[in-house]
Write a structure and sequence with these properties.
By secondary structure, the protein is α/β, with parallel strands linked by helices. The chain has three domains: about 100 residues, Arc Repressor Mutant, subunit A; about 120 residues, Nucleotidyltransferase, domain 5 (2-Layer Sandwich); about 160 residues, 2-Layer Sandwich (Nucleotidyltransferase, domain 5). The protein is built from 16 helices and 15 strands. It has a five-stranded mixed sheet, sandwiched between helices. It has a five-stranded mixed sheet with strand order 13-12-11-14-15. The protein is globular. The structure holds zinc ion. Zinc ion (ZN) binds next to loops.
Length: about 400
């Protein structure tokens, strides 16, 4: 390998900063010496990267409690005291605004919820009020904002293209609109992708680069993580399993088509059927209370929901052959036996070798954590969006440390 780096000094600086952040994200607070050793670059290179990250308020310096006598080394950690990010989750019935640290911790005391308003303008007004209360009262610098939306998203243009369950965002550049109101950069993320990020950072997908996340809520979505990246398809529509047809000439779906999976296996489909059964409007929270209380007719409706959901899950297993399939949804939290039923039904329907190779697990992550994680990812990955590509083009089969030794020269 040549000792001459193929990259411009500015890009090299950014790569070094990203490597410092990644080390702290993976290993926790570290000293400059530890970083120099671990990343494999000189101390002055690390010092320069750290100084830039301190300036942009992504890192904070703390005393090294473990240091012995003599002048204590300083440790660097992801900012929590002086900086924050704002996460916003939107759904058809409720919206939430939270503040979080750069290490992904959501401040439990900084959570505001409100029922989803009837118009886009009212939604923006509520978001502005809640977010500004965190921005002005915390005494911290706000570095960015993320909003998760139950919609097909054009990530390139940052536009919510289509949402069957929150149609007021259709065609809206909601990230840009929030950015204009708050004066801070705002990224948007599909809610199934936010759940996948949360599982990867805080849940059981930490070591996984290939997995599927079924997001079962009012609607049904799918997060597809392939080789550590989201599979979004050519136009961002990948994963829209809720609108796959499963019933010929079935009920009308909110997307305008007939017989979609959502018409028989979503929360709203269950709400409609149980409401008909009881002769009055019933929401999913009450459906679950009735099921937990032993109402057999309501439980039968939920089991029927699982029968249909298993068809969708089996399709995904057959098409994608995932190693791990996470299932997220309050239905499965409230009635764990429905998760077992869903897996059992899927095993009956999917191809034997594919389903035998797939582990099913209930998701541990949350939409709020995932939305906060999306802002942090944006802030850190935007330093070098294609870090892995750069590293692999540099490595040519060598270990990362030797790459850094030879090519990430002080810049
Ligand atoms: Zn549909």
């Amino acid at each position: 390998m040549s000792n001459v780096s193929p990259f411009q000094p500015k890009l090299l600086s950014k790569i070094n900063e990203r490597l410092v952040l990644r080390m702290i994200q993976e290993r926790g607070p570290s000293t400059r010496s530890e970083m120099s050793k671990y990343i494999g670059v000189t101390f002055p290179t690390v010092a320069k990267a750290v100084s830039s990250l301190l300036e942009s308020q992504l890192l904070e310096e703390i005393d090294d409690a473990s240091a012995g006598p003599g002048r204590p080394a300083k440790r660097l950690r992801l900012a929590s005291e002086n900086s924050q990010v704002i996460g916003i989750t939107l759904s058809g019935d409720e919206c939430t605004v939270v503040a979080g640290d750069l290490n992904g911790t959501v401040h439990k005391e900084s959570v505001l919820r409100f029922p989803t308003p009837a118009t886009y303008e009212l939604l923006l007004a509520e978001i502005e009020t809640c977010a500004k209360s965190f921005i002005s009262s915390s005494g911290k610098s706000t570095l960015g904002v993320g909003v998760s939306v139950p919609a097909v998203i054009d990530y390139g243009k940052q536009v919510a293209i289509m949402s069957a369950n929150l149609p007021l965002v259709n065609g809206k550049s909601i990230g840009k609109d929030i950015q204009n109101l708050l004066g801070h950069e705002c990224v948007i993320i599909h809610d199934s992708h936010a759940l996948s990020l949360s599982e990867r950072l805080h849940g059981n997908a930490k070591e996984l680069s290939n997995f599927v996340m079924l997001d079962h809520c009012i609607g049904i979505g799918l997060g597809l993580m392939v080789e550590g990246r989201f599979l979004t398809g050519d136009s961002g529509f990948a994963g829209e399993i809720g609108h796959s047809p499963v019933v010929l000439d079935g009920e009308l779906c909110k997307c305008g088509k007939k017989g979609c999976l959502e018409t028989v296996a979503s929360e709203w489909a269950v709400e409609e059927r149980v409401s008909k059964l009881l002769g009055r409007p019933v929401q999913i929270s009450e459906v679950l209370e009735l099921a937990q209380g032993g109402n057999l007719e309501v439980m039968q409706e939920l089991e029927r929901m699982c029968d249909y959901l298993a068809i969708g899950v089996a399709h995904v297993v057959n098409i994608l052959n995932p190693g791990t399939f996470f299932i997220y949804g309050r239905v499965f939290e409230a009635c764990p036996k429905l998760f077992d039923l869903l897996v059992e039904k899927t095993e009956e329907l999917a191809l034997k070798p594919s389903v035998a190779a797939c582990s099913f697990a209930r998701a541990n992550g949350s939409l709020l954590d995932g939305t906060v994680a999306s802002v942090i990812n944006y802030l850190t990955d935007s330093l070098v969006p294609n870090l892995e590509d750069y590293l692999s083009s540099l490595s040519q089969g060598d270990s990362q440390n030797s790459i850094a030794d030879e090519t990430l020269v002080p810049s």
